[in-house]
Write a structure and sequence with these properties.
Layout: H1 3-40, H2 44-53, H3 57-73, H4 75-82, H5 89-112, H6 115-147, H7 150-179, H8 186-207, H9 224-229, H10 231-237, H11 239-252, H12 258-269, H13 273-301, H14 303-323, H15 327-352, H16 361-390, H17 392-413
Helix pairs in contact: 1-7, 1-8, 2-3, 3-6, 3-16, 4-6, 4-16, 5-6, 5-8, 6-16, 7-8, 7-13, 11-16, 11-17, 13-14, 13-15, 14-15, 14-17, 16-17
Length: about 425
């Protein structure tokens, strides 16, 4: 079979299995993201750590920095493990399962350990969660790129995240009103994380129904140190991708503000279970509804436009919180942050898929994700230091500066990747 014939046969199989794989990814993403959003939203985990630590902003920053550090260390390892494989789904099941066990550990620590010991267990669990998350995203994005054509990714991402947002909002409402307690308790948070584990585990089981095609070519197998050593040359060969990596890392530094939005607002409106539920619902519903807009915009104009639009919205919401901490103003701010975070997340992930040849995709994902998560590891730690020494306002201003720098670099040096094809 000639190379061209093999490629045509591969594309034909992708189209033939697209309806099934679209539905499988939709359901897997809805269940998985519902659970992981309960962990990653800037409400429950920061407030949980603040409670366990007795009110330490530094502990909040440290825990989230370790989570991001874990995500920094493993994408290149994951890229090395799957780059030469014809099928990547089995590796995804392994890494995804390990990631879910870390969420279970968040719950069990609160149920069974003394509060001071639970703090260390939670921090360790978040670090391990980051390690496996860094591996999982490379595997799952490689799988998605194989089975979902680029013209359908915006639609899938938007609809998947829309459904996940609805279920997350429902679980957050139930958790805030019936599980957390007044005032919120360690056991209440543990129940929420136990629900997260159940939902994400169900989604992972559903992913086993994917029909993964065998590509006509894969990258040659390399040792990890050889692959890492090739990164500088790889980046020199593709300056647009290099600038994208830097722009994404700069904007990711804006995450330094995420855990402190709720703490800053809580200083004036309180951190009751009902308040946490309302703000989490505002955050998730905004992300939910915005997905339909971001997805449609991406399919029509590309993910670069979504990237820039989401960053501008993120900047506006951050500055708005500095202007008012009235209850309704805080809700509006969390709506803006939720929509911005969702747009940035789907744009950053999907732009990476569009820069080069399919065989190089795991390496591109490894480079882009490691760089972004390195910034994500530094960001909350720097945010915690700034919050402790200079106050929350300095964190928000620094985050705004990084977001602006990343957006400017993308505007000036990174054209729409789809124009390359």
């Amino acid at each position: 079979m000639t190379d061209n014939t093999a490629e045509l046969a591969y594309q034909a199989q992708v189209q033939r299995d697209l309806p099934r794989n679209f539905v499988v990814h939709l359901v897997h993403g809805m269940l998985g993201q519902t659970g992981f959003r309960l962990v990653n939203t800037p409400t429950f985990v920061p407030a949980y750590i603040l409670l366990l630590s007795g009110g330490s902003d530094f502990a909040v920053g440290l825990a989230l920095a370790l989570q991001a550090l874990g995500s920094t260390l493993t994408p290149m390892i994951s890229a090395n493990l799957v780059g030469h494989r014809q099928r990547v789904l089995p590796m995804g099941i392994v890494t995804g399962g390990a990631m879910r066990l870390c969420v279970l550990a968040l719950a069990l620590a609160g149920f069974f350990l003394p509060q001071n010991v639970a703090l260390y267990a939670v921090i360790a669990s978040l670090g391990l969660f980051g390690l496996f998350a860094g591996m999982q995203i490379v595997v799952f994005q490689t799988l998605l790129a194989k089975v979902i054509p680029v013209s359908n990714r915006g639609k899938l991402t938007g609809l998947r995240n829309f459904l996940a947002g609805i279920t997350t909002a429902l679980v957050a409402w139930y958790g805030g009103h019936y599980l957390l307690g007044e005032p919120p308790s360690v056991i209440g948070y543990s129940w929420i994380f136990l629900i997260s584990f159940g939902l994400t585990s169900a989604g992972l089981l559903f992913l086993a129904l994917v029909r993964e095609p065998v590509p006509p070519t894969v990258a040659a197998r390399q040792r990890l140190w050889q692959q890492i050593g090739s990164v500088p040359h790889f980046l020199r060969q593709d300056p647009q991708f290099r600038h994208y990596v830097v722009a994404r890392a700069l904007t990711t530094m804006g995450r330094m503000a995420l855990p402190f939005y709720i703490l800053y607002a809580g200083a004036s409106i309180g951190l009751s279970g009902q308040t946490l539920a309302v703000l989490t619902i505002a955050f998730t519903l905004a992300a939910t509804l915005s997905n339909l807009v971001w997805g449609a915009l991406a399919d029509r104009s590309g993910f670069r436009v979504v990237f820039l639009g989401s960053v501008l919205l993120w900047i506006a919401a951050t500055l708005a919180l500095l202007l008012s901490r009235e209850y309704w103003a805080v809700i509006v701010v969390f709506v803006g942050i939720g929509a911005a975070q969702e747009g940035f997340r789907i744009a950053a992930m999907n732009m990476t898929l569009e820069f080069g040849h399919r065989d190089q995709l795991p390496l591109r994902l490894g480079i882009a994700n490691s760089s972004a998560e390195a910034a994500g590891a530094l960001a909350p730690l720097l945010g915690g230091i700034l919050a402790t020494l200079l106050g929350y306002e300095s964190v928000f201003l620094a985050a705004t500066a990084f977001l602006s720098a990343g957006a400017l670099l993308l505007i000036l040096r990174v054209p729409e990747p789809r124009q390359r094809h």
